[in-house]
């Protein structure tokens, strides 16, 4: 099972993009995307390829919820000990 975390595009060079998730940056391919993207857009990445563009609001909301989960006491008790 995979968990898709929205990745924000911070740079584009032809069919390659640099994405950022909580400060971690990675280069990915845009070859599989059927639509144009620009810096600031969010994408779902699988195996180094952006496979879907998602709405910026949805991307920001998903990252907010993930951060809240990771910072929760229940998560820390289950996964950080």
Describe the overall structure.
- With 81 residues, the chain is α+β, with helices and mostly antiparallel strands.
- The protein has a single domain (7-79), classed as SH3 type barrels (Roll), CATH 2.30.30.140.
- Helices cover 28% and strands 37% of the residues.
- The chain is built from 2 helices and 5 strands; from the N terminus they run βββββαα.
- A 5-stranded antiparallel beta sheet has the order 3-2-1-4-5, with helices on one face.
- The radius of gyration is 14 Å and the shape is elongated.
- The two termini are 23 Å apart.
- The mean pLDDT is 90.
Kindly summarize this structure in a few lines.
With 81 residues, this protein is of the alpha+beta class.
Characteristic key phrases:
2 helices; SH3 type barrels; single chain; 37% strand; 81 residues; five-stranded antiparallel sheet
CATH architecture: Roll
Class by alpha and beta content: alpha+beta
Overall mean confidence score, pLDDT: 90
Helix segment count? 2
Any low-confidence stretches, pLDDT <50, length ≥5?
none
CATH topology: SH3 type barrels
Strand coverage percent: 35-45%
H-E string: EEEEEHH
Question: How many strand elements?
Answer: 5
CATH domain class name: Mainly Beta
Number of domains: 1
Biggest sheet: strand arrangement: 3-2-1-4-5
Main sheet characteristics? 5 strands, antiparallel
What Rg do the Cα atoms give?
14 Å
SSE topology sketch:
Layout: E1 7-13, E2 16-21, E3 24-29, E4 42-46, E5 49-54, H1 56-71, H2 73-79
Antiparallel strand pairs: 1-2, 1-4, 2-3, 4-5
